[in-house]
Design brief:
Elements (H helix, E strand, L loop, with lengths): L9 H9 L2 H7 L10 E2 L2 H4 L4 H16 L1 H24 L6 E4 L2 H11 L7 E5 L4 H14 L2 E5 L8 H9 L6 E7 L11 H10 L3 E6 L10 H4 L3 E5 L11 E5 L25 H6 L7 H4 L1 H10 L2 H23 L17 E5 L6 H11 L2 E2 L2 E3 L4 E6 L6 H17 L5
Parallel strand pairs: 1-10, 3-4, 3-5, 5-6, 6-7
Antiparallel strand pairs: 2-8, 7-8, 9-12, 11-12
């Protein structure tokens, strides 16, 4: 069989990982995870390091010391500072951002603001997150526009080919493109900057679901140029649960309506800004938002660029060993450069007689938390490698998959 792993031989992977194993073992102590589980599902909800979680609780206690002072007189200034720090991290001005509790909330703000009718179309791919599809389908049912799910074939080849293929789904009726930056089911990084560039030239609004992007890949939102970009900070940035953001390009901010009207008031001498309109939602706990700068500082202090590279190599090793053992085709070209995926990777799994029992054994017998299931047919696993994961954990997962698959072969 010809090698489909150029530049990613087993010895190269082992050499790259050797220096990082000690570091990743020590990082486990900085997280609050149950030591009895192998946690390969950071992608679903994230995990917060102890120092960041302590900051989160410190802000909660500060609020409770004097709720009136904190919420009524202090909070807005603190949020402004936190947005400025987040904006610098994301490559945009903090005034183009508002904190939201999660990416789904941000998606709702954008989707509900779109003025679409029966002659209009919204274009997406078949790799999107279910809740995003639910939003668009719900509104399409009420307003009559068409939600077009364009199938993107696997395996991926080049980013140029991806853009050309996806653009075949654009028609004169396409008013909005809604697409993931990093997909949930396949963990692939889509070339959204070029899609946004083409869409802007064609007068098409773009909404990017960046739920998995912040903290997993470098971001510059101004360069990406999406009209709207939503992201989670509790996943790969490791901020507390309840921290996400909605970004709107300056020229597009007036298109958005608030889901919750609270701080809005119109006076001739006080025009309402994007932040004024969108950020105020009544009484809520802002501690997760205010801990975001600490999450950014934590990753900077621990050289997260190197952490990401080490995690990518460890995920590549897991996929390499399973796919080579069972002659499976990866979902994208494989090399040492994380162009198509970073720390989260979806890989095909060998065919077994009882997929449900396969998942049960992995979770219940070996305490490995990892999403496994069918997507467009064959079974797959989405493995998330974070700073706390180790070589020994990857070895365990590969061994379990290999031994189970070889002893549970489907009957004809």
């Amino acid at each position: 069989m010809a090698s489909r792993w150029p530049g990613l031989s087993e010895p190269k992977i082992e050499r790259r990982l050797a220096a990082s194993i000690v570091i990743m073992n020590s990082m486990r102590e900085l997280f609050l995870l149950d030591p009895d589980i192998v946690f390969f599902n950071h992608g679903s909800f994230g995990a917060t390091p102890r120092p960041v979680f302590e900051s989160y609780q410190r802000w909660q206690r500060e609020l409770e010391r004097n709720p009136v002072k904190f919420i009524g007189r202090t909070q807005n200034g603190l949020l402004k500072q936190a947005r400025a720090t987040l904006g610098e991290y994301l490559g945009t001005d903090g005034e183009n951002l508002v904190f939201v509790t999660n990416a789904s909330f941000g998606i709702n703000v954008v989707v509900r603001s779109m003025k679409l009718g029966p002659e209009d179309e919204v274009l997406t791919t078949d790799h999107e997150y279910g809740a995003v599809n639910n939003n668009w389908n719900y509104l399409a049912d009420k307003l009559g526009f068409k939600y077009i799910i364009y199938p993107m074939p696997l395996p991926m080849t080049t980013q140029e080919a991806f853009v050309e293929e996806f653009w075949r789904g654009v028609t004169p009726r396409t008013k909005v493109i809604s697409i993931s930056h990093i997909t949930s089911p396949t963990a692939l990084i889509f070339p959204v900057q070029e899609i946004c560039r083409r869409a802007r030239a064609a007068g098409i609004i773009t909404l990017i679901d960046g739920a998995h992007a912040p903290g997993q890949i470098p971001l510059n939102l101004d360069e990406i140029g999406a009209d709207f970009y939503v992201g989670n900070l509790h996943k790969w940035l490791c901020a507390p649960k309840g921290a996400g953001f909605l970004h709107a390009r300056l020229e597009s901010q007036q298109l958005l309506e608030p889901l919750v009207v609270h701080g809005w008031h119109k006076t001739p001498d006080h025009p309402q800004s994007f932040v004024d309109i969108q950020q105020g939602q009544g009484t809520r706990d802002s501690a997760a938002f205010l801990a975001v700068p600490d999450a950014i500082a934590f990753q900077k202090e621990h050289n997260w660029d190197q952490v990401r590279a080490d995690c990518h190599a460890l995920a590549a090793q897991a996929q390499h060993r399973i796919c080579e053992e069972f002659d499976l085709e990866p979902f994208s070209p494989v090399n040492a450069n994380p162009q198509w995926w970073s720390q989260m990777l979806s890989m095909p799994l060998p065919n077994v007689a009882d997929p449900r029992d396969f998942s049960r054994v992995v979770l219940e017998d070996y305490k490995i938390e990892i999403p496994m299931g069918a997507w467009r047919g064959p079974m797959q696993a989405r493995i998330s490698i974070q700073a706390y994961n180790t070589q020994e954990e990857v070895d365990l997962f590969v061994d379990v998959v290999t031994k189970y698959a070889k002893t549970h072969i489907p009957t004809a």
